[in-house]
């Protein structure tokens, strides 16, 4: 279940009036909740990025058997879909760090924070929900998707490096100022003594004697007065004098011979007296004042610079994050819906605590996109067997929600002004998509079903996207989801008979032939069936194919 503090990006194939769909969704959402605002839903204009002719040849629509020997572009597309979640996490983390920097600079003041978390001088909600459009002037869609993501990543990396450098410089300056200020406001064991002592408290220009300053806890003052002369030899009698006092310590000066300096310091430590390392200088006080003033000025200058830079970089980084989300949305849409790459995008900011109702409304609205086979009751086979025994294995999979989560972005915790994103894609109607018509020329590609090559990994990735990620347990034979009437079995027999007979493929081939292609069941072949794609990685993918025999096709 997505967060009720998130902003949702939704994509569906464009098959009608996008503005009409937006208005219809708003009407339904406002009827569901009287407080739902028109400003909480907006159009997301998904650009049609450059897609090569090779990809057109491969991505017919939604689901087909892919001729991998032609799919260098497809390989790149799938690789991007696997890489972008990591890039997305980096983008999200960078934006989150900028927000956290602003929050710290502004002492966690929500009112001040809202004045600086702006995108092009507009609030985040206005930027997203006021008919968001791709910045074509800056990121031309004529570029390839790989080039596009590299440009976005390069800019975000530059922002991240710049912020790290500036933040480090500011933290050093702030640390230096804090240290100097602590010397002014701490107790006598840590604070600066330049404005506490004066020249008369010290023996000047003595070759053998020196004056030490000792901070004695208030509860040990009586003990100090009684024993300081006997801590070591060569301590000047009656030389201890109270210089200053606060709530925790009393500062004493004491005169000793230089030759016993180390012994006296050690004895003081053993008795929990604190020796202050201090050398009196006439210009020490003015020097410390100058250091404090310089540190304070430097800290304020760097604070101002970092605040300005964080405000600017938040705007830039947030735009980059949204553009990357849209690229991901486009790539996933192409892999699931196919071409032409025309998709409707909608941005919705659900009301708090209404996520479940909003999600239910969207599911009902996009019902026309769900597969016909979803929830369909299996029919009996006229060959004497039924499909009920096979459906049970996948019942929980068939009843799952028909929309897919696509690696939602990380939430910017504690800051509703910079929301997280959840990306959804609603699947097209499998039964109506012409790209599902798998003709008999797929015979030449059957090697994919038992190959351990990267192509099989690509195919598995595509199947998971297009069929909602249905990955059943390992099985050695397929199960029928529904049966049809009067289909010609010749191309199916030909197809399966040419599958490689390797160790991984052989069990599935035998099961398919025994169950569906013997004489007893030949008169009732399935039109829609579940095939098993067995790959060298040792897992199986369950997917549906709509089979159509072209009688005029030559094998």
Automatic annotation (TrEMBL):
<comment type="function">
    <text>Subunit of the V1 complex of vacuolar(H+)-ATPase (V-ATPase), a multisubunit enzyme composed of a peripheral complex (V1) that hydrolyzes ATP and a membrane integral complex (V0) that translocates protons. V-ATPase is responsible for acidifying and maintaining the pH of intracellular compartments. Subunit C is necessary for the assembly of the catalytic sector of the enzyme and is likely to have a specific function in its catalytic activity. Reversibly leaves the enzyme after glucose depletion, causing the catalytic subcomplex V1 to detach from the V0 section.</text>
</comment>
<comment type="function">
    <text>Subunit of the V1 complex of vacuolar(H+)-ATPase (V-ATPase), a multisubunit enzyme composed of a peripheral complex (V1) that hydrolyzes ATP and a membrane integral complex (V0) that translocates protons. V-ATPase is responsible for acidifying and maintaining the pH of intracellular compartments and in some cell types, is targeted to the plasma membrane, where it is responsible for acidifying the extracellular environment. Subunit C is necessary for the assembly of the catalytic sector of the enzyme and is likely to have a specific function in its catalytic activity.</text>
</comment>
<protein>
    <recommendedName>
        <fullName>V-type proton ATPase subunit C</fullName>
    </recommendedName>
</protein>
<dbReference type="Pfam" id="PF03223">
    <property type="entry name" value="V-ATPase_C"/>
</dbReference>
<dbReference type="InterPro" id="IPR004907">
    <property type="entry name" value="ATPase_V1-cplx_csu"/>
</dbReference>
<keyword id="KW-0472">Membrane</keyword>
<keyword id="KW-0375">Hydrogen ion transport</keyword>
<dbReference type="InterPro" id="IPR019727">
    <property type="entry name" value="ATP_synth_F0_fsu_mt_fun"/>
</dbReference>
<keyword id="KW-0812">Transmembrane</keyword>
<dbReference type="Pfam" id="PF10791">
    <property type="entry name" value="F1F0-ATPsyn_F"/>
</dbReference>
<keyword id="KW-0813">Transport</keyword>
<keyword id="KW-1133">Transmembrane helix</keyword>
<comment type="similarity">
    <text>Belongs to the V-ATPase C subunit family.</text>
</comment>
<feature type="transmembrane region" description="Helical">
    <location>
        <begin position="523"/>
        <end position="541"/>
    </location>
</feature>
<dbReference type="GO" id="GO:0046961">
    <property type="term" value="F:proton-transporting ATPase activity, rotational mechanism"/>
</dbReference>
<keyword id="KW-0406">Ion transport</keyword>
<dbReference type="GO" id="GO:0015986">
    <property type="term" value="P:proton motive force-driven ATP synthesis"/>
</dbReference>
<dbReference type="InterPro" id="IPR036132">
    <property type="entry name" value="Vac_ATP_synth_c_sf"/>
</dbReference>
<dbReference type="GO" id="GO:0000221">
    <property type="term" value="C:vacuolar proton-transporting V-type ATPase, V1 domain"/>
</dbReference>
<comment type="subunit">
    <text>V-ATPase is a heteromultimeric enzyme composed of a peripheral catalytic V1 complex (components A to H) attached to an integral membrane V0 proton pore complex.</text>
</comment>
């Amino acid at each position: 279940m997505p967060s009720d503090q998130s902003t949702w990006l939704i994509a569906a194939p464009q098959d009608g009036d996008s503005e009409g769909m937006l208005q219809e969704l708003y009407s339904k959402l406002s009827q569901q909740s009287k407080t739902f605002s028109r400003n909480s839903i907006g159009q997301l204009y998904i650009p049609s990025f450059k897609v090569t002719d090779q990809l057109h040849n491969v991505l017919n629509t939604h689901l087909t058997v892919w001729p991998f020997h032609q799919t260098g572009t497809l390989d790149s597309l799938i690789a991007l879909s696997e890489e972008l979640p990591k890039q997305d996490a980096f983008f999200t983390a960078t934006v989150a760090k900028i927000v956290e920097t602003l929050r710290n600079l502004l002492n966690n003041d929500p009112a001040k924070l809202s004045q600086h978390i702006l995108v092009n001088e507009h609030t985040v909600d206005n930027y997203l929900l006021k008919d968001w459009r791709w910045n074509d002037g800056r990121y031309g869609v004529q570029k390839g998707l790989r080039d596009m993501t590299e440009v976005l990543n390069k800019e975000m990396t530059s922002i991240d490096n710049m912020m790290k450098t500036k933040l480090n410089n500011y933290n050093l300056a702030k640390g230096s100022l804090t240290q100097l200020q602590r010397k002014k406001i701490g107790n006598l064991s840590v604070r600066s003594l330049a404005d506490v002592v004066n020249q008369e408290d010290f023996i000047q220009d003595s070759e053998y004697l020196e004056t030490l300053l000792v901070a004695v806890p208030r509860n040990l003052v009586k003990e100090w007065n009684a024993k300081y002369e006997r801590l070591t030899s060569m301590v000047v009698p009656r030389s201890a004098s109270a210089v200053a006092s606060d709530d925790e310590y009393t500062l004493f000066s004491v005169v000793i011979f230089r030759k016993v300096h180390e012994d006296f310091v050690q004895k003081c430590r053993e008795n929990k007296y604190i020796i202050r390392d201090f050398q009196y200088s006439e210009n020490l006080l003015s020097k410390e004042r100058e250091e404090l003033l310089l540190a304070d000025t430097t800290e304020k200058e760097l604070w101002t610079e970092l605040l300005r830079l964080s405000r600017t970089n938040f705007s830039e980084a947030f735009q980059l994050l949204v553009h990357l989300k849209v690229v991901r949305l486009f790539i996933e849409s192409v892999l699931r819906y196919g071409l032409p790459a025309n998709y409707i995008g909608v941005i919705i900011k659900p009301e708090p605590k209404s996520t479940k109702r909003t999600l239910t409304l969207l599911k009902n609205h996009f019902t026309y996109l769900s597969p016909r086979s979803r929830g369909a009751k299996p029919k009996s086979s006229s060959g004497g067997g039924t499909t009920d025994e096979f459906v049970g294995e996948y019942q929980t999979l068939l009843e799952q929600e028909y929309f897919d989560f696509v690696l939602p972005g990380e939430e910017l915790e504690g800051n509703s002004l910079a929301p997280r994103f959840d990306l959804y894609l609603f699947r097209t109607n499998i039964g109506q998509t012409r790209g599902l018509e798998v003709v008999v020329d797929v015979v030449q590609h059957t090697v994919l079903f038992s190959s351990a090559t990267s192509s099989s990994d690509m195919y598995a990735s595509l199947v998971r996207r297009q069929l909602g990620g249905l990955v059943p347990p390992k099985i050695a034979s397929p199960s029928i989801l529904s049966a049809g009437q009067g289909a010609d079995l010749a191309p199916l027999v030909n197809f399966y008979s040419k599958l490689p007979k390797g160790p991984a493929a052989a069990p599935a081939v035998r099961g398919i032939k025994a169950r569906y292609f013997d004489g007893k069941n030949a008169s009732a072949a399935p039109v829609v069936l579940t095939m098993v794609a067995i790959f060298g990685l040792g897992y199986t993918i369950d997917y549906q194919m709509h089979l159509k025999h072209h009688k005029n096709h030559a094998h």
